[in-house]
Amino acid sequence: MRLLRHPSSGKTYAIGLLVATLFSGAIAQRQPPLHTLAITTPEQLHDFFRYTGQDIPLISGHRGGTIQGYPENCIATFENTLRHTPAFFEIDPRLTKDSVIVLMHDATLERTTNGTGKVSDYTWADLKKLRLKDPAGNLTRYSVPRLEEVIRWSKGKTVLNLDKKDVPLALTVQLLQRHQAAAHVMLTVHNAEQAKYYYDHIPGVMFSAVVKTRAELASYEQAGVPWSCILAYVGPENKPENKELYDLLHARGVMCMISAAPTYDRLPDPAARQQAYRETFVLGADVLESDLPIEAAAAVQSLAPKSSGKAKYFRTID
């Protein structure tokens, strides 16, 4: 084995061992590419969610996804999902005691961290010392992220859908304005009043809006919120009554979303889950929100049209 003397330190290295170490390190660090959504303007975001009848089935990772070793509402989990499939992500902003917006679904810490008590009783300095748990309750090396950090990470990679927890609407407006994030951050709204407030304060904003009935559909029209900025959440089940809503919303250019998180994701049989995921799209929905986005995406991959104007938004990056 040849030896190599470092010119400045004078230390001697075995060349074969050095090369092998560097090579094995490079292999270990190599990751699959990210499947991203190349959306850079609010207009593109609106076009991405516009119903055309030739749309690629879309997957939303509920809190990022549920997989062993990865916590919910965590950048590492989002990246893991994107290494398998393009997706956007429903996430949960909450306020700390000192008004920092972090990601946490529950109002309390026990289920998802090694902390106890209410999120709102802790400062950001306190929370960042905690560690997140994976779905099985195992402690990971990941910590609670700030929403600002996640917004910066997501730009050019994916779209974030902010659920409504305890963050005042005005603070959400300030955050999106400060980061000029309307091109890759959308907002969940539970009624037309919330949508109208955001629409009046954030140019180009996009919504995931609860539209489960004809009355709710009419309320958005009465509020003057354009359908061009709405993705409609119609509920958690594939049921015959959905067809009327699908037809009404599709006629307005609106995509429709079903959430499998409380229903089909919980089926114990993988084959039954996959069948339910496929049926969601066959019966007329356009978007599936799931705790199992990697599995759901694989199940519906064959349903994608041979050509779609939306294909331009799907990219892979290292």
Structural overview:
- The chain has 318 residues and is an alpha/beta fold.
- The chain has two domains: 1-30; 38-317, TIM Barrel.
- Helix content is 33%, strand content 17%.
- It has eleven helices and 14 strands.
- An eight-stranded parallel beta barrel has the order 4-5-8-9-10-11-12-13, surrounded by four helices. A two-stranded antiparallel ribbon has the order 1-2.
- Helix 6 links the parallel strand 8 and strand 9.
- Helix 10 (270-282) packs across helix 11.
- The two termini are 35 Å apart.
Structural class call reads: alpha/beta
H-E order? EEHEHEHEEEHHEHEHEHEHEHEHE
Record field, number of beta strands: 14
Q: How many helices does DSSP assign?
A: 11
Question: Into which percentage range does the β-strand content fall?
Answer: 15-25%
How would you sum up the major sheet?
Answer: 8 strands, parallel, barrel
Q: Which word captures the global form?
A: globular
The CATH topology of the largest domain is given as TIM Barrel
Poorly predicted sequence stretches spanning 5 or more consecutive residues? 1-28
CATH class descriptor name of the largest domain:
Alpha Beta
